[in-house]
Amino acid sequence: MRRPWGALLIAAGVVSLLAAASAHGQGTRGDSARTVTPAELAQMLKSKDFFLVNVLPAYEGEIPQTDAFISYLDTAARLDLYPTVKSSAIVLYCRTGRSAALAQRDLLDAGYTDVRVLAGGLQAWEQEARPVLRRSSPPALPYPAASGDRAGPVPEGCPCGLPSTEP
């Protein structure tokens, strides 16, 4: 009776290599591709130190303190509207989380390292009875907010409170 020691050793080696690669983020996105729950985001908003982006292509409402409205379809083309520091914390949201995950992938591919998606999107946020603002006159997209670490004009009526720099 033959014992399959060679095959067993090879399988153990492959498992060890995959575990090591996952732990170091090699070959995977590892911890870079993360989500936040509505409760976690609500807590984060109490001492906001991240860039919050609504990635819906059409305005359907917004979470208070949203910094920008940049469609997920335009993420790769409009990196100039995101923080220039690639390690900046960014949280993306859409209606369900699917479009935000696509924008997250584009940002990670562009070198950003701390990009999170609101799990369940605006639907999950509202299901937890959290506030959603709905403007009677929605902002034109893209709609960046003012930030010292990214380029872009401050649009007229920006909720950030800074004066407009649009011509």
Element string (H = helix, E = strand): HEHEEEHEH
Distance between the termini: 84 Å
Q: How many individual helices?
A: 4
Q: Summarize the biggest pleated sheet.
A: 5 strands, parallel
Helix content: 25-40%
**What is the overall silhouette?**
globular
Q: Please state the second-level CATH architecture of one domain.
A: 3-Layer(aba) Sandwich
Task: Explain what this protein looks like in three dimensions.
This protein has helices spanning 5-24, 38-46, 98-109, 121-127; strands at 33-36, 51-54, 68-69, 89-93, 114-118. The protein is of the alpha/beta class and 167 residues long. The protein contains four helices and five strands. A five-stranded parallel beta sheet has the order 1-5-4-2-3. It has a domain at 32-127: Rhodanese-like domain (Oxidized Rhodanese, domain 1). The protein starts with a helix and ends in a 40-residue tail after the last helix. Strand 4 (89-93), helix 3 and strand 5 form a beta-alpha-beta unit.
Brief summary:
This protein has helices at 5-24, 38-46, 98-109, 121-127, and strands at residues 33-36, 51-54, 68-69, 89-93, 114-118. By secondary structure, it is α/β, with parallel strands linked by helices. The protein has a domain at 32-127: Oxidized Rhodanese, domain 1 (3-Layer(aba) Sandwich), CATH 3.40.250.10.
Descriptive labels:
globular; Oxidized Rhodanese, domain 1; alpha/beta; 4 helices; single chain; 167 residues; five-stranded parallel sheet
